[in-house]
Each structure stands twice: as C-alpha cells, then as structure tokens.
Prior knowledge:
The complex is a heterodimer.
Chain A: E1 8-11, E2 28-33, H1 42-50, E3 77-85, E4 88-96, H2 105-109, E5 116-119, E6 124-126, H3 136-140, E7 147-149, E8 154-156, H4 162-165, H5 172-176, E9 182-186, H6 187-203, E10 210-212, E11 222-226, H7 244-275, H8 283-296
Parallel strand pairs in A: 2-11
Antiparallel strand pairs in A: 1-5, 2-9, 3-4, 5-6, 7-8, 10-11
Chain B: H1 2-15, E1 22-24, E2 27-29, H2 33-57, H3 63-66, H4 71-96, H5 112-119, H6 134-158, H7 165-193, H8 201-205, E3 208-210, H9 211-217, H10 219-227
Antiparallel strand pairs in B: 1-2, 2-3
Amino acid sequence: MTVQALDVKRSSASVWGSGTGIRQQTAVAKYIDTTTCIGCKACEAACQEWNDLKRVPTTQTGTYQTLPELDAEFWNLIKFREQEVEGTLNWLMRKDQCMHCAEPGCLEACPAPGAIVQYANGIVDVDPEKCIGCKYCATGCPFEVPKFHPQTGKMAKCTLCVDRVGVGLEPACIKACPTGCLNFGTKDDMLTLAKNRVTRLQADGFKEAMVYDPQGVGGTNVVTVLKFNRPEWYELPADPHVPWGVKLWKKVMRPLGVLAAAAAVVGVFAHYTQYGPKEVPGSEGDDEARRRDERMTP
Amino acid sequence: MTAIHGEHADSAILAARNRENVMVGGEIVRHRRASRWIHWSVATTFILALITGMPIWTPIFRWMANLVGGLEVARVIHPYVSVAFFIVSVMQFFHWASDMKFTPDERGWWRPSKLWAYMRYEDDPAVEGGKYNGGQKFFFYSVTLGALAFLVSGLIMWFPLGFSPIVRELSILVHDLVFILFLIAIIFHVYLGTIAEPGTLRSMMRGTVTRSWARLHHPGWFRQVTKS
C-alpha cells in the first residue's frame, strides 16, 4: 500500500517514474552487524508479529535456520552458515531480508503500474492490490528476495516496516534486537556506524572486515558489516547487479520494438500512398490476359 | 451478366465448403471452409494474445488491458489464449504444409531485396509460382517457428521459479524479440491481405477469388486450376 506520509520516488511500469514529492525525505537504512548477531531470531518473531504473518513451522535443514530461504509469509530470516577459515570454524549468521536497493531490479522488471514503488526515503515496497503475480520481480532481483504467495497470487517481501517508519518508528526487527547488532537511522548515519565498526574489527585483528553496501545496485538501504571480505560466505552475491537481461529487455528491446512497430505502420501507409493497391485488372486487361493464356497453353 | 455472375458466385461459395483449387463458374475456390476456420482461429487467438500481452509489455499499451477487464485479467488469460494459439498454429502447419514446399526459384524470397521488389510490384515474369509465392511460404514457416519459440519461452515465463535466472532472462528476451518480429510481420500481413491487394480478403472470408485475381497474383496456380 502506498503510505500517505511518504513521497514516492519511483514507480514500476510508469513511463514518467520519477518522484513527484516535494518533501525533503532523507534515505533511511537498516544497520546489520553480523559480528554481534547471536542468532536469537527475535527479529524473525517480531517481523511475523508486527506484519500479522502466520507462525511458520521450522523446516529442518540440519542448521539452526528456520527455513531454507525467505518465503511469502516469512520476510526476515537469519541465515546460519559454518565456514572453516584457516583451520578455525566460524559460525556465521546474517539477517536476510529485502535489501531495498537504490536501483531495484524488481521495480525495473515489474510490468504492473505502481505495483512496486520506491519511496523518497529509499524503501522499496510491493502494493499487493496492483501486483498481477507475474513473478518478473523474482527474475529482476539479484538477491532472490520477492516470493510468490500461491493463495493470493501476489508477491510479498519485507516492507522495511514502511507503516512504522512512515510515522517515525524503527522497523519491528530493529526494536526487537537484544544485542544492538541491528540499528536504524539515516543511510549516512548507518554507513558511518558501519565504517566505525569495521575500523574497530580491523584493529581487533579481523583485517578482512568490510561494509556490504553493493554499488552495482546503487547501494542498498540495508548496510551490513561482515567479518570476512567474502560476501558469498554469508550467501550474499559478491557484486550484485540488475540482471543484464532485464536491462536489455526494458532499456533497449522495448523502445526499439515500439519504434519498429510504429515504423512498420508508417511504412505501410507510405507504401499505400506511393504505390497504391495492386489492383486486379478490369475486363479489358482480363481479355488481354486470357489471350496470352491461350497463346501459352499448348 | 451481373445476375449470372451472382449465381456463379453463390455456387462458388457453396463449393468452397469442402473443395479447394476448383473453378466454379466465374470464380475459383482458393480456401475451403476448413482452411478459413483454421486461419481465423489462429488470427483470433493471436489477437487475444496480443491485447493481453502488449499491456504487460509496456504501459504505452496499457489501455488494451481495459478491453479484457484490466491488467490482472490480461495476465491471467494471456497464457491460456497463447497455448490455444500454439495448438491452432500446429493444426495450421499440418493443414497447409503440403502446399508450402519451396520450389528452387523461390529460395531467395526471404531476402529484403526480394520483398522490396515485390512491394514495388516488380514481379519476376520468370517465376510462375504455385498456389503460394515464396514470400507467403517464408511467412508460413516463420510464424510456425515463432509460435514454437513463443511456447517454449512463454512456458518458462509462466512457471519461472523452477528455472535459473539466466534461463528466465533469456526466455523473456526471446519472447520479446519474437513478439516484435511478429508484430511487424502481422502489420504487413494484414496490409497485404486487405487494402494492398484487393480481392484477397474475400478468399479468406467466402473462400473464392476471381479469375483475374488468380491470374494476377498466382499465374502458375491459375493455369493449374483452369486446366483441370
């Protein structure tokens, strides 16, 4: 749903998709410090509760993880991985949810006007009333976040608690976190926090510590601190982009196709005005042709 | 004279129910009823697929969705009418395939220069041709192949979640490209079949053409039919 308190910056399948808002709304971001996450899953519970999502039974995968991947009814998932680094076992936990990209591939791919919107504060949201359930957004997303709900026929994902943020509250997951590994504020503040944390980690000996704010999608409104410079260890793409196929389709093929079809119509009109119809000759021509036929027939 | 012609025309229409390539009075039966029904089944399902697919393609054609009750309805019925389109396209292929064998002098018809010459009415007197000319045959095979490409890419787009992202992206691009080529081809097909070549539409409506039409557009076929 669109939220009255927030201006829209971009809207799916809109020819003029740029913002119309005049309000000064700064980009907000979630801060996730994977190094202080204890895997308590309070954020998962808070997400289900605030968003009125059903209680999802755990699918056992041999780890502490609740589900193998995000679901249309489960938008916030702690991913648990065991990674051996130089003979030491590292138990890595990362909170997975929509990354709220500055250049959202889902919005780019979506064909339904207004079904995916990007608010001026950076939140990317799905409007289920406008969603047509085509699943193009799943193809557009480099993080495999939007999930299809078979009963409603709609896509669903983390809203960054747009209904809370719009009235000045932090997202439910942030509020529930007991260790302070989650934080919420302006994107600038969260980046500063993350950089300071990385500096601290590096001083403590974790030389590879990094801030994950992938520039391939214009940066994300989820800022993640990783202990190791290996996003794939956390099941994150190292260099995510809006898929080239989606870009080629929307930015090249589609305008060229419209132009080609228009050119065909103009061409046909030009042909008719230049050459006219290929008329069947009248009776005079008929007689002449018949004589020719008779000559040619043995 | 007119009355006799009218009588002839009536008997020609009756003959066009189940016979093809025969002279009846002043007219020649070009497409019997089954051929016409197959053609119009393909045309109807194609147009339905078009008006339900184009608003999903770009918001410029969003108004088309209103014809079927909105974008969500369009998205729901597009795959079904498209499967129907594929099925009737296959029927069409087998119905017409025997008439669509290329003769050696028709091999170059896919060339733009040939199309251009045809559109300027520069008919090659050396090529008599059969019931269909090389361009029609080329169009026939293209739409059949296109229907197959539509089906394969469309099924992947209909049920994308079991496929890898690269396959999904490729299928969208293939669907897009085939659609654009189809759109251009259909614009020319409709133009040639209606106002550009008067007397052609009736062959697909009532099944018959006049002798002069046949002599002008398909002299080889005209000779075969009038000889027998």
